[in-house]
Amino acid sequence: MTEPLVSRMRSFGTTIFAEMSALATQTGAINLGQGFPDTDGPAAMLDRAVHAIRSGANQYPPGPGVMELRQAVSEHRAERYSLAYDPAGEVLVTVGATEAIAAAVLALCEPGDEVIAFEPYYDSYAASIALAQARLVGVTLRPVEGRFAFDPDELRAAVTPRTRMILVNSPHNPTGTVFTRAELTVIAELCQEHDLIAVTDEVYEHLTFDGAPHIPLATLPGMRERTVMISSAGKTFSVTGWKTGWVCAPAELVTAVQTVKQFLTFTASAPWQVAVAFGLRHEGEWVAALRASLQDKRDRLMDGLTAAGFEVFKPAGTYFVQTDIRPLGFTDGLEFTRRLPELAGVVAIPTQVFYDRPERGGHFVRFAFCKKDEVIDEAVARLKRLSV
């Protein structure tokens, strides 16, 4: 039998997260690789999900999503960002942000179109673009004065007559960068000059540190009408397993995305939608406490990584700390992370797998700090073996 998998997906295989999580299980290593919390979200929101299940919210909800959640999302966008979205036609509930991104790319890109994304990028971006038979064009984020940033001239040079879309992730996974207003202005000007659509992955919108502001691209002049704004409950409320996300965009863009989404999953789970609506309306203080806790965990892990000999980059948001392994005498992050359970009893993620050009990120390794303090402390104690 010939290879059954379509050619455009053959280069993807098993995700790096599955490989490293399996390695952690096999070796008993502490998993600081995959970005999921080891604590639950707000108790009242969890109770609301249980109540929804016991109250009969167990059948198909409307395709666009439960109106209660769409209204809550609309209120949240207005209150937080002064962005007005009609819940009846400009908000779409999805099975997490990953589905929202895939549906947006599939809906809005023709074969041969080009999609610009900032590398290193979350691995689902490349897969979604390949499924659409479009072409990913990477613009590299590089360390500049302690944070990862792009070269505006390199971004401008990446735009061609085939460019259809710029995919923007801020706060950025895996570097932890939060794009500044000046950086977003460059992106906005290019989108307007070349009539491009922006798809924005904003799942870490509430998880920024040291006062760094999250600025949605859609808030910039001329950008609401050409931006597909994507977020989710998973990171905001520490319920990554609920897979409940949403799209906010002008009606014609939402209609396009929903046309594809309905043939992927049709709709998203009803009980989680009801609970997330409650969370958006009532759990702001819980989210603020989570943000403060994560900032402390970030600093805790950064101190330990520095003491172990890594060069450490301070993230302004997300769950992740980016490190350079060269001070430890290593240059290949994939080799290093495969050996790290043996060397120190810890699992991390090699950043090079998130690049179009892996050689540009071969010396970077990502660690997650969305874990209990005692887990971070034990991981730090183990990592000290590297500096002995």
What does this structure look like?
The protein has a seven-stranded mixed beta sheet, with helices on both faces. Helix content is 41%, strand content 16%. The chain has helices at 16-27, 43-54, 67-81, 96-108, 123-131, 152-158, 181-194, 233-236, 251-261, 270-282, 284-308, 333-344, 373-383; strands spanning 30-31, 91-94, 114-119, 135-140, 142-144, 147-149, 163-169, 197-201, 227-232, 245-248, 311-313, 320-324, 346-347, 349-350, 364-368. With 388 residues, the protein is α/β, with parallel strands linked by helices. The chain is built from 13 helices and 15 strands.
The main sheet comes to: 7 strands, mixed
Oligomer designation? single chain
Residue share in β-strands: 15-25%
User: What's the Cα radius of gyration?
Assistant: 20 Å
Query: What do the pLDDT scores average to?
Result: 96
List how many beta strands DSSP finds.
Answer: 15
Largest sheet, order of strands side by side? 2-10-9-8-7-3-4
Q: Name the structural class.
A: alpha/beta
Uncertain residue ranges? none
Query: Number of helix segments?
Result: 13
Helix content: 40-55%
Q: Helices and strands, in N-to-C order?
A: HEHHEHEHEEEHEHEEHEHHHEEHEEEH
> Terminal Cα separation, in Å?
52 Å
What characteristic shape results from the CA principal axes?
Answer: globular
